[in-house]
Amino acid sequence: MTALTVLVVVVASVAATAYDPDCKWRADVIDASDIAHHKYTVLEDCLYYKLSREADAMQGQQNSLSVYPPSIAAGETLEVDVHKVAIRQMWMSEAFQEMYINGYVDLSWKDRRLRWNHSDWKTDALNIKNFGRLWVPDLNSDKCDRKHCCFNLRSSLYRRYIKYFILPGKNGISSLDVALIRASWHIDNSWVRKVAADDDFKAEELEMCVTARGKSSTLSIELTIPLIISAPLVLLAPFFGTFQKQIHVKMFSILLQFLCFQFLASKTPQAGFGESVPRIYLFYAFTLCMSVVSLIITVIISAAARVVRKVPPAHRFTLLASVMNANVCCGMETKPVIDGTSSKDASSDWLQIHVALNDLSSLVIVVAYVIGLIIIAF
Q1: Strand pairing of 78-93 and 162-166?
Q2: What pLDDT, in 10s, does the model give residues 237-283?
Q3: Best CA proximity match to 35, nearest among 15, 250, 27
Q4: End-to-end CA distance of the chain, in Å?
Q5: Calpha distance 238→257 (Å, rounded)
Q6: Phi, psi (5° rounding) for residue 169?
Q7: Is there a contact between 54 and 113 (Cβ–Cβ < 8 Å)?
Q8: pLDDT tens across 146-199, in order?
Q9: Which stretches within 19-95 are classed as H helix?
Q10: pTM score, two decimals?
Q11: Three-class DSSP labels, 162-215
């Protein structure tokens, strides 16, 4: 029992002798590169605790270095330099209508409490590995409900104390770094700027905005090919011959467009597209409208052509229709059978005029369709 007691006392005595909270052995060191890695870590701990004690005495509070900002007098502000804001990952939850962004912000500021004598401590850098051992600005994100996807970074505890200064980036322009972003989205525009808080004009915030759009070449081809197949059917319908054939072709084209639009609707995100409408939707809607208008015009002209008329049309209209049908060569109708009751049956002349009207309306629809596509595309 006695031997065990003596052993414990000896070990405790050795440990007490080895513990040196001030790292007095640093006086024998000439350069920090001569210190072993584990001893350099001990030196950094000694320096940190020395600075922590001085900060507590300066500000009159415990744990000042890790809890309180580096301010002493009332009304002081802290200048925070924003070196870089980068986005590396971005994805969207369509069900909850939320966008998630992962990235980082490179900030720097001056802390008067982190001062020491280089010749005494043999180092000009202090690596603080634990995030909670040093006070940092408490920046929180707040999503803005705007047209662009914007996030505001603000300090909750020191709103008026922190003042931001955005340093110029590449070519003197400050912007978000999205070069290495990994996402199925294309960044059209992005920026970071300093703005005043909405509820306090003396408080500053960092506004980061991203304008993104989905990109998928395979999906784009998958949605465009049906439109390319169905749209020419409407444009080429007058070349299929009689009114009845043209009506069947246009009805089949409308059926294809409707089925393709249903397939497009199934690919629509649950959250929708907000205020913007993708061009592919405008293409489908415009093509479907033009097809319906073309079908209605052809049906009306076909019904009017079946009416038997005894009064002949004006001669100038007959000549104009004859010239148009001879040069356009779109529609072609069989001449009506004359019942023999009158040698002045004008059904053939009226039919020629109706065919010319259908060809003219088809030409107008084609021109309007091409102009509409150009407007939508550009």
Answers
A1: parallel
A2: 778 878 888 888 888 888 888 888 787 777 666 555 656 677 778 88
A3: 27
A4: 95
A5: 18
A6: -95, -140
A7: yes
A8: 445 777 888 888 888 888 888 876 554 566 777 777 666 667 777 788 888 888
A9: 37-59, 64-67
A10: 0.50
A11: EEEEECCCHHHCCCCECCCCECCEEEEEEEEEEEECCCCCCCEEEEEEEEEEEC
